[in-house]
Amino acid sequence: MTARRIDYSLITSLAGVVIAGVYAGLRLTSAFPPDGGAVVYGFVWVYNYTALPASILVVLAALTALFYWVPQAIVKRPGFRRDGALLLLALLAAAASVWAALPLGRTIYREVPNGTLAAAGRTYHLGVRVSGDAAQNAYTLCDCPGPVCECRYLYDESLKTLEPLPALKVDPAGRIVVQVSDRILHEEKP
Known about the structure:
Layout: H1 8-30, E1 38-40, H2 41-75, H3 80-101, H4 103-106, E2 107-119, E3 122-131, E4 138-144, E5 148-154, E6 167-170, E7 176-180, E8 183-188
Helix pairs in contact: 1-2, 1-3, 2-3
């Protein structure tokens, strides 16, 4: 009995298509928390922290498939046309994954250290949206009663240098407070 050969071309192509499709969907729906809008915070986190490494992985896999396929095509090994079609699919997936990660070259979102707080049955996430244009920078406070969060932008002069970073805490009166040094940017009763 002959052992079955693992079809790496098929695996590479399909994995690349799936990864590119997931991140393209995340780019269109959850790239950044919108000001005053609702978003699934977990999707925002996944996109902003993993889209670049995932796109690099898909591009490297497609290039590996290309360098594996070229010698097959030169000697016209049986199956090289099918593998060429799968390679084309992998290259298209690589292009789609790069497209999906492109917004992270202009604007990126990160949580501030200790930027998550649970209070009164809700979770609060404090992050910062940073871009090359300082006018686009904003602290982002997301209020999450469940998986879907309401987010709002908070502006402060510290956004120019990101020093000092704001703190998210509960004050003695039980209010949620976002504070930079001695300035209160936002406070609300949960």
